[in-house]
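Table S2 (text version). Query chain:
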Amino acid sequence: MHPFSPLIETTRGTLRENLHLGAVAVVNTREHLLAHWGNPQQVVFTRSTLKPFQALPLLLGHGHRQFHFDSRELAMLCASHNGEEMHVELAQGMLAKAGGGVASLRCGCHVPLRFSFFDKGAPDGVSFTQAQNNCSGKHAGFVAYCLQHGLPLDDYNAPDHPLQIAIREAVARVVRMAPQDMPMGIDGCSAPNFAMPLAKLAYAYARLASGPQDAEFGGVFAQLSQAMTDHPELVSGTGRNDLALMRAGRGDWVSKIGADGVQCVASKSRGVAFAIKVQDGARPPLYAATIEVLEQLGWLDDVQRVELEPWRQRSITNARGLAVGERKPVFQLMAA
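Corresponding structure-token output:
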């Protein structure tokens, strides 16, 4: 089986110009593979789709209660946010509640996604802080865990730090793997990130969305998945696909994108999730493939189909607005 198979093609005129390869895994809460495209066992880095599970040590240790984090702040733990004012204020508030500050963050500073995600330059003369890093909510949770347990802050991203060891063990429990079997890399925010088979990532999201029905993490998963669907604007931000997907899902879909072509969507009512990896990491084909998977799974009603149509980006236009090509799916999910 080839690891990646054709997902989305683009044409210019009558000629195929680009072909984007990828893989899809559809899995339920019993870890049964229901459907796939490409190799569902392809090992991929989870990137920011890992965030809800990186919050597990904090919630399992009741740190969110100790520091009085509300549902909005739980959503921020899972966020790859735009760095809008609402995001920055919440990140700063989380740090203040825990007894830390922006200087304690170890995620680094970048141009906020409200500019860079949309290929816009930041205004001249504007400076940014680590609170505007898209991962600042996750890192505020890291700081809170360390302050709760009296752990050092300077090296909380180190793979051998007790926090990161706890995260790796919790993630391994969720996907039923040995911690050492998950390859590790360092993410853009300097925290360890783990790779796993695509089907395992889908399984993790099926469990997350099942909430209280999960025998091991039910209470925690219920809080995290509810926070994400209640506050999708915090998980992503204005104009972002996770916001659009969770709004269209009307509280049923838990959606999280990751860098370099990773996307997960889970249905609470169905106990099913899918994970996608686009090999070249491009976002437009990832968006288009995600909507096509929803279509092929039969999750879309007529209203949702209209709401999400812009994310298919079927027509390719030039700078004058002329239609010069098409973007279309070239895959059909296979029953397992």
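Notes on Table S2: The two ends are 14 Å apart (CA to CA). The chain has a mean pLDDT of 97.
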